[in-house]
């Protein structure tokens, strides 16, 4: 750890050594930050592409239950799909906004707050889905967290292993996205603090 007193891990260093060490730490953090932001961007791109595919009627990744495709039959369903998909599209650009010059037009606190909120929502959504499945599969709660039966969710009272595994993978993918968004924000904060101290 670099301290203002000129000591690193208890050893005295010269100002020149301190500057070199600070630059090295900042460079390493910046590299980690850029990789995390890129990973979050790619995650969101795949996430959004799959949702467009599913809204268009695609089935891959949803299992084989009859009610697995998101419904868009009513105006309410279409509005909901539009709002959710718009959030996904915004989510693609948020991590990149912290790394690109055009992103400076957006106040940093807005970008960071949106990423924190997105991170929390994704982790909670994925975690709740995994817990819901675990409760059903262990027999602790036949209706899981939601109070709905498998019949109500998937259209099949006894969904196939394919459908169950697809649901678990989707829930895990939500968690992965939340962790990637969270890591991006944490590394951004470390980078900003390092610049303030430098």
From TrEMBL:
Source organism, top-level taxon: Bacteria
Keywords noted in UniProt: Membrane, Plasmid, Transmembrane, Transmembrane helix
Ranges that cross the membrane: 36-56, 78-97, 109-128, 165-182
Organism (species): Streptomyces avermitilis (strain ATCC 31267 / DSM 46492 / JCM 5070 / NBRC 14893 / NCIMB 12804 / NRRL 8165 / MA-4680)
Pfam families: DUF3995 (PF13160)
Keyword GTP-binding: no
Protein name (database record): DUF3995 domain-containing protein
């Amino acid at each position: 750890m670099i301290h203002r007193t000129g000591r690193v891990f208890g050893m005295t260093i010269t100002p020149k050594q301190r500057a070199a060490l600070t630059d090295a730490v900042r460079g390493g953090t910046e590299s980690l930050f850029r990789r995390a932001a890129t990973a979050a961007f790619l995650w969101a791109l795949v996430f959004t592409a799959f949702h467009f595919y599913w809204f268009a009627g695609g089935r891959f990744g949803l299992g084989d239950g009859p009610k697995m495709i998101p419904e868009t039959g009513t105006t309410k369903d279409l509005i909901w799909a539009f709002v959710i998909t718009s959030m996904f599209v915004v989510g693609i650009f948020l991590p990149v906004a912290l790394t690109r010059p055009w992103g400076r037009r957006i106040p940093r606190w807005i970008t960071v707050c949106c990423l924190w909120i997105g991170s929390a929502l994704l982790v909670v959504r994925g975690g709740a889905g995994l817990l819901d499945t675990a409760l059903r599969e262990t027999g602790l709660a036949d209706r899981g967290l939601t109070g709905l039966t498998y019949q109500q969710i998937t259209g099949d009272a006894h969904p196939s292993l394919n459908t169950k595994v697809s649901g678990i993978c989707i829930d895990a993918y939500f968690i992965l996205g939340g962790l990637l968004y969270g890591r991006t924000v944490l590394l951004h904060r470390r980078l900003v603090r390092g610049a303030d101290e430098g």
